[in-house]
Amino acid sequence: MKADLIVGIQWGDEGKGKMVDMLAQNYDIVCRSQGGHNAGHTIWVDGVRHALHLIPSGVLNPKAINIIGNGVVLSPESIIKEMEQFEGLEGRLFISDKAHLNLPYHALIDQAKEKLKGDKAIGTTGKGIGPAYSEKISRTGFRVGELLNPKKLASGIIDYFEQSRAIFEVLKVETPNKEELVELLTEYKNKLEPFIANTTNMIWDALDSDKKILLEGAQGTLLDIDHGTYPYVTSSSCVSAGACTGLGISPKDIGVVTGIVKAYTTRVGNGPFPSEDFTEDGQKIADIGKEVGVTTGRGRRCGWFDAIAVKHAARLNGCDQLSLMKLDVLDGFKTIKICTSYEVNGEIIKYMPSDLENVKPVYEEIAGWDSVVGCREFDKLPENAKKYINKIEELTGVRVGIVSTSPERDDTIIRG
Ligand code: IMO
Ligand code: MG
Predict the structure, then answer these.
(1) pLDDT in tens, 120-165
(2) Residue 40 C-alpha to ligand 2 middle, in angstroms?
């Protein structure tokens, strides 16, 4: 059986956690294929809020197995802390031995480089994601499987510190000595060894034995290292194609692709955002939508639905359907704006250019509605909410198959 995929198609924080959690009830295996603990997936179950960073959202379904693929950069410290929230994870969580390690010095490098960039800073999460991926690509990184031999790994890391001493000195990043490192890595080994596995073979076996597999994207298409708003992006491949390399499966193994999209747009960190709203409407969206980052606690920039960006992202990912999240946040607005084209140097365009720096949004306004909170049937939505959804479908060319009307798992419309 093919693996279904959930992918963020804006700048992250689209509400992927809720969707994966909901869908995970019907899947045997949930996999993460890229990113690291820069992700923050919030899930509400029975009024209790769970924040996940590295562990796939299937962890809240006691029957699901969760896999962290080779494309992820894994912070042992972060996952160990996250694992403490759950009992009985052995046999339910597996980490690829080929995933790269994101070690404490990566975060220090990340933060030091951001500081040096001053007003050109990317606004990273400071979690060491860029440095860990840089070392992977430079072929100087270390992998999760190496944790099984902490002394050998510590020697390798110390050698690397020696070779890069000049860089660490310039960045004023302190490195641990060998004894400290062996102690730390041994602690990681003791906690993580039962979870380290050849996950590629596990996924192949699952695909071949018709298990239901869900691939959980982190971040979003507009943060993708190749297709996002470079350099204001993350360092991984967040598009659906990245799930193949990040897990070791082929494009032929991918089934239904669902693009997760908010009914409006948000972005954390710096970089262009054409439909950002600087008026009190933007602030109202932020307040009602509780738009504060799960990972860093930073306020998110808010604005209107950008149909040009979503159409572009849906094509990149091969979306079969969209899942429209947080529609309830737009309740009570008199009118709702939707970006239907861009103006660049006086010219109107209907596609996403490679550089968004000088792009101005062109809006259409749609009449608002009272409330959609808790609505679970499409036909029961207020007429104007239906019109808004139809407009999104018309502009993006993709069907809205799922609509979320509150943070709760069951407040969701599945159109079938
Ligand atoms: P989820 O999975 C939103 C953003 C950061 C920054 C840029 C680079 O919760 O949707 P990084 O630390 O990755 O080098 O930062 O990417 N960013 C996210 N924004 N949601 C995320 O993940 C993000 N992960 C990274 O704010 O602008
Ligand atoms: Mg997030």
Answers:
(1) 999 999 999 999 999 999 999 999 999 999 999 999 999 999 999 9
(2) 4
Q: Is the peptide bond before 231 cis (omega within 30 degrees of 0)?
A: yes
- Tell me if residue 13 is catalytic: yes
Which atom of ligand 1 approaches the CA of 236 most closely?
Answer: 13
> Which one of 4, 37, 41, 277 is the catalytic residue?
41
Whole-number Å distance between alpha carbons of 197 and 43: 27
Q: Which CATH class is domain 3-74+200-414?
A: alpha beta
Q: What is the pTM of this model?
A: 0.96
SS3 399: coil
* Diameter over CA atoms, the chain: 67
SS3 of residue 99 by DSSP: coil
295 Cα to the center of ligand 2, angstroms: 6
What number of residues does the chain have? 416
* CATH superfamily assigned to domain 100-194: Adenylosuccinate Synthetase, subunit A, domain 2 (1.10.300.10)
Whole-Å CA distances, 83 to 51, 80, 156, 191, 387: 12, 5, 27, 10, 43
**Helices (H), ranges, 223-346:** 240-247, 280-288, 307-317
